[in-house]
Amino acid sequence: MGVKAKIAPSMLSSDFANLASEAQRMLDCGADWLHMDIMVILLCPPLLLLYYGISILLFLCCCRAYLDCHLMVTDPLAYVEPLGKAGASGFTFHVEVEGENPVEMVLVMTVEPGFGGQKFMPEMMDKVHTLRKKYPTLDIEVDGGLGPSTIDAAAEAGANCIVAGSSVFGAPDPAQVISLMRKSVDEAQSKM
Ligand SMILES: O=C(CO)[C@@H](O)[C@H](O)COP(=O)(O)O
């Protein structure tokens, strides 16, 4: 058995006016984590900012800080090479995956960030596959376009942390979607 599946509904697809109850609903449906895009507050009208800001602060109080590294769609995998190995170029930040202060998770974006409901980019799976081969115990997260029709591609490439917004919040039975995605990750991990 490889790494544990962690299913993280993206709160970007939730009802923002009821953030706390939406979060609880997802936890009741079996979510392991709740994914929050902080960029959302930049898009809020000023009067709503305070309300959302307080909600988000309360929400974050219940969260564990996670040391991670994001790979945007156009970011090369070399960003997460160990420091000494890849060397640091003038404009590139390299992040240690192994060593004294390793990252705990690498997030491979599978859409351009901004909004939910976008199409999954299967070509990003090469990054996931390469990372998984190199780092068998690393938490590898994918975010964007994940749902019942795309989960197998991500799971088979080696992703174990799954961020999913519209497929979970838009489902008549979110618990069933969460469970299906967990099963796909568990099955893929059991073969690794
Ligand atoms: O960061 C983002 C998009 O910017 C994601 O967290 C989305 O919220 C995922 O939504 P779906 O693609 O699953 O609908």
Automatic annotation (TrEMBL):
<keyword id="KW-0479">Metal-binding</keyword>
<dbReference type="GO" id="GO:0006163">
    <property type="term" value="P:purine nucleotide metabolic process"/>
</dbReference>
<feature type="transmembrane region" description="Helical">
    <location>
        <begin position="49"/>
        <end position="67"/>
    </location>
</feature>
<protein>
    <recommendedName>
        <fullName>ribulose-phosphate 3-epimerase</fullName>
        <ecNumber>5.1.3.1</ecNumber>
    </recommendedName>
</protein>
<keyword id="KW-0464">Manganese</keyword>
<dbReference type="GO" id="GO:1901135">
    <property type="term" value="P:carbohydrate derivative metabolic process"/>
</dbReference>
<dbReference type="GO" id="GO:0006091">
    <property type="term" value="P:generation of precursor metabolites and energy"/>
</dbReference>
<dbReference type="GO" id="GO:0046872">
    <property type="term" value="F:metal ion binding"/>
</dbReference>
<dbReference type="InterPro" id="IPR011060">
    <property type="entry name" value="RibuloseP-bd_barrel"/>
</dbReference>
<keyword id="KW-0472">Membrane</keyword>
<comment type="similarity">
    <text>Belongs to the ribulose-phosphate 3-epimerase family.</text>
</comment>
<keyword id="KW-1133">Transmembrane helix</keyword>
<keyword id="KW-0119">Carbohydrate metabolism</keyword>
<dbReference type="GO" id="GO:0004750">
    <property type="term" value="F:D-ribulose-phosphate 3-epimerase activity"/>
</dbReference>
<comment type="function">
    <text>Catalyzes the reversible epimerization of D-ribulose 5-phosphate to D-xylulose 5-phosphate.</text>
</comment>
<dbReference type="GO" id="GO:0046496">
    <property type="term" value="P:nicotinamide nucleotide metabolic process"/>
</dbReference>
<dbReference type="InterPro" id="IPR013785">
    <property type="entry name" value="Aldolase_TIM"/>
</dbReference>
<keyword id="KW-0862">Zinc</keyword>
<keyword id="KW-0413">Isomerase</keyword>
<dbReference type="Pfam" id="PF00834">
    <property type="entry name" value="Ribul_P_3_epim"/>
</dbReference>
<keyword id="KW-0812">Transmembrane</keyword>
<dbReference type="GO" id="GO:0005975">
    <property type="term" value="P:carbohydrate metabolic process"/>
</dbReference>
<comment type="subunit">
    <text>Homodimer.</text>
</comment>
<keyword id="KW-0408">Iron</keyword>
<dbReference type="InterPro" id="IPR000056">
    <property type="entry name" value="Ribul_P_3_epim-like"/>
</dbReference>
